[in-house]
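Problem statement: downstream parser choked on a complex file, so we are re-checking the raw output for the NAP run. The parser issue turned out to be on our end (a line-ending mismatch), but while we're here, posting the original submission so the record is complete.
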Amino acid sequence: MASNPFSLNNKTIFITGSSSGIGRATAIECSKMGANVIITGRNTDRLNDTYSQLVGKGHLKFRADLTNPDEMQQLLEFLPDLDGFVVNAGIVKLSPVKFIKTEDLDRIFQMNSIIPIMMTRDLVKFKKMKRSSSIVYTSSTAGNFNITPGNGMYSSSKAAINGFMKSAAVDLASKGIRCNSVNPALVKTPMMKLRYISEKQLKENLKKYPLGRYGTPEEVAYAIIYLLSDASAWVTGTSLLIDGGLTLT
Ligand SMILES: NC(=O)c1ccc[n+]([C@@H]2O[C@H](COP(=O)([O-])OP(=O)(O)OC[C@H]3O[C@@H](n4cnc5c(N)ncnc54)[C@H](OP(=O)(O)O)[C@@H]3O)[C@@H](O)[C@H]2O)c1
């Protein structure tokens, strides 16, 4: 039988934020594509829920709060050598410019920019990323392709990670490590509820989407699978838009 370049057979993929939303869907879909996945998140019940939905054998789970240095260290030591790293855990908080608080900004940049950068550094430094491996960052349309009111903290953290991703793509190319990002517009996950106040606003906002609906976590997972697979072997430094046409309007 002809080999499938989109397959993740025999690949070991580590996904942060896999106890919920996009990370959970990515873990499940990667397992369906033949990968051995390593999942992590803070909440044990949610993590176990993802674990119970994984297809096949050989998967691992590790509960950790990525903002806790000891737990982060234990997680890094726990990890085997990787073919893929999906840097997905993230947080959001809306605030108009004049109400931005330093502690909120610190928290958002820690989770969305600094921790992803430092994890990349450590996994490369400790030689956990194999040759021809792939790193995929979950960035966003926000800050990169469109701007919405009150979203300055989140937008700037997601623009930062795309800037880093391109730089890492150049730096790590000689090791055969590819770096890319996916950039979703609004996707139906628990995070979506934190961005908009009311159902009415969500309905109104939908009018901006030419395809007439918000995305699903699985639709982002499929794009991540492409960037993890050998089908994208000549793709590095790319910010892939997944937005139902939002940024065309
Ligand atoms: N949903 C959207 O509309 C959308 C659009 C564009 C981009 N994104 C990005 O996509 C990524 C996933 O978002 P989502 O919508 O799937 O959100 P979600 O359902 O809220 O999931 C967020 C994940 O991040 C984990 N996480 C948060 N803080 C953590 C910490 N301190 N330590 C360890 N894990 C932590 C959560 O773990 P727990 O379950 O333990 O809390 C959870 O697994 C984020 O980077 C987000 O910015 C989302």
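For whoever reads this later: The pocket of NAP is lined by residues 17, 19-23, 41-43, 46, 65-67, 88-92, 111, 138, 140, 184, 186-187, 189-192 (CB under 6 Å).
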